[in-house]
Give the backbone structure.
Amino acid sequence: MQPSLFPPAVPQTFTVSKLTFHIRKLLEENEVLQDVWVQGEISNLSRPASGHVYFTLKDANASLKCVMWKTSAARLNLSLRDGLEVEVHGKIGVYEPQGQYQLYADQIRPVGEGALYQEFIRLKAMLEAEGLFDPERKRHIPELPHRIGIVTSATGAALRDMLNTLRRRLPIVEVILAPSPVQGTEAPPALVKAIDTLDRRQLDVIILARGGGSIEDLWAFNDERVVRAVADALTPIICGVGHETDFTLCDFAADLRAPTPTAAAELATQITILDLRAELQTYHTRLASSTLSLIAEQKAALSSITSQLRYLSPARLIQSERQRLDELSRRGFMSVAYRVNLQKKFLEGAQKRLEALSPLAVLARGYAVVTRKTDGGVVSRVAQASEEMRVRVSDGEFEVRK
Amino acid sequence: MPKSSAKKTEKKVEDLSYEEALAELEQIVSALENEQSQLEEAIKLFERGQALAARCGVLLEAAELKVKQVVGEDAEAIDFDEESE
């Protein structure tokens, strides 16, 4: 019997696309696969110009293709290489054109870091509950320190950068260094001792610093002993550990967190030599101007007294009297002269009136005086007239008969 | 410039630290601004003030960062030699 050309009936015949899509949906709807950490060894690492990162995670029995897009890859502070054992976080998807499932990665960390991070979370919760990170515990950082303590490694860029910063900003400050290892198992007890030593020296502020590194490198600053030493210290502590994005428990316990050691040195010196120079200049100015105005005041007082003195002097009194005398005599003279003048005028007026009334003036106007020849009596009425009379005119007389 | 003073309690300006000199300078300026001083006294204060301000200036400009390091069990402080590290 010939085998049937057609297989037994199946519910549906998929296209390749449909089947692939079906698989993709299955995987993408699985919650576990959409938020997964996978541990394995990197191989076939490829970093093309696009910025995306392609690699395979493998172990003894299986391998998993991975891709990390450019933006996530840019945030990586771990350098990738083939053979590196890592933990990768991401979601499973399917690249349909190649029928390939793969891990779309968003984080990569070294193996073991996961465990460290768990410990970090645990300790943070515990110490926070004890109140070690409370804002009320934070001490005020002095604006102008005289003595600054530093706990850090004696070698390394962190110390050098901090000293340069302090030298630039406040060269009059005194620095006391308590060197200490800043990683490894010997670090925590050494750090505690260094902090304690400086805390006893009546410093204005202590800087706890370390350059950047991985969570393992910075682990000493998450050690419970060190965190407690920072919280218990009497001196204000500025913590500048790692890079801007690194947070250790010492950062939370410190009175002030700085993003880097250099920033810690800056925060420790809020008032700088520039401010001090400006302040000194102000004093110079106030010194000069206050003294000058005092002198001016004294001058003015002196001048005023001198004026008063001059005003009250005998010489002035005499001069004053003289002037008064002149004034009076001038006025006196004036009144006599005035009266004389007045009389004169009166006289002149009377004279004129007199002249107007004089007989001579009357004669000049054409009037005549007639007198009797016999007795010389004035004839002012017809009855008084005689046979022979004399007539007097302005310039002479003559006889007339009635 | 050394300024010896009539007052027994006044230190020589050159012996004062920055903080001491600045504090006295502040006092003098305050006195000159607020109190009625006799002229002669005011001039004396002015001169001392100038000397103090000059001292502060010298200390500021000449300052070199002093770095000490604690060593040993009794935590003595010795000068820290940056070059050797």
